[in-house]
Amino acid sequence: MLKFDMDRQEKVTFWKQASKSDLETMELIFAGKKYSDALFFGHLATEKMLKAVYIQKKDEVFPAIHDLLKIAMLSGLKMDKETKDELEVVTGFNINARYDSYKHEFYDRATRQYTTRYIKFIKSFIKWLQKQI
Fold first, then answer.
1. Where are the domains of the chain?
2. pLDDT the model gives residue 98
3. Are 42 and 122 in contact (CB under 8 A)?
4. What is the DSSP letter of 63?
5. Which CATH superfamily is domain 8-131 in?
6. Which residues contact 111 (CB under 8 A, 6 or more apart)?
7. Can you tell me the distance from the alpha carbon of 49 to that of 126, in angstroms, rounded to the nearest whole number?
8. For position 99, what pLDDT does the model report?
9. Is the dihedral of CA 92, 37, 19, 82 positive or negative?
10. Is 0.85 surpassed by the pTM of this model?
């Protein structure tokens, strides 16, 4: 449980562990062929690792947003355009999997092939983020 009296490293460790847990959940859900839900957990895992990076670099409370690209930019991360574009897509997994008005369309788009592509990106990006800490 995240506590306000934790020091910076404890907070970073908390968010890294939370990200790892969500990655494991993503893998289990993917194996169960619930592809849109797997992508949702991929978004959560990415967001939590970005929070770890933000805290490590800024030593302050991160903004209450779910926009992955914005968190990355506020963290001072340097990324190429392709990575930025992919982060914008992954940010959409949060909204598309959460809200009923988007779920059906997202469910249809989240095929095994599409999901596999983005899980590969998510894992690669999170590994890169771990190196930034």
1. 8-131
2. 63
3. yes
4. P
5. Nucleotidyltransferases  domain 2 (1.20.120.330)
6. 35
7. 7
8. 61
9. negative
10. yes
Average pLDDT, the chain: 92
Sign of CA dihedral 70, 73, 79, 81: positive
Q: Length of the chain, please?
A: 133
In this structure, are residues 62 and 54 in contact, taking their beta carbons and an 8 Å threshold? yes
Contact 55, 9 (CB under 8 A): no
Express each pLDDT in 75-127 by its tens digit: 999 999 999 999 999 999 987 556 666 677 888 899 999 999 999 999 999 99
Locate 30 and state its tokens: 């993917």
What pLDDT is attached to residue 5?
81
Q: Extract the tokens encoding 124.
A: 């690669």
**CA 125 from chain center: how many Å?**
9
